[in-house]
Amino acid sequence: MTTTSDRKLKVAIVGLGRMxxxxxxxxxxxxxxxxxxxxxxxxxxxxxxxxENLPAGVRGYTDVxxxxxxxxxxxxxxxxxxxxxxxLAELAMSxxxxxxxxxxxxxxxxxxxxxxxxYRRGCGNFATSSRNSEEIPHFKDDGSIRASL
Length: 149
Description:
By secondary structure, the chain is of the alpha/beta class.
């Protein structure tokens, strides 16, 4: 039987550039309560890198919506250029995923609004912005997810 403390957050990562590959590696090997289940990038060489460097079983996608629909992920790390953060967070949240955006939401009103609205609804599908890995959403003792906002 899996207890709450054994449960891992299933994570999908969008963007495998310089920062995305670092986050993918860290989440795969250094975050014990996370399991990377999928990655998405439009570049074949990035998916090849993932195949060679991430744990077996991580699925590679070129279509982000297909990944959100079929990967089994509960959360997504969005590690793309800033202009793509809000639309990708909105798409992820429309599929019921928690969105974790690395970077800043300052000046990005759509992402800030999505964050506030989702948090206010208490649906758990909120976007958070962080430059500090300690602010990544964590499981509460009851198995639900919380984040520093």
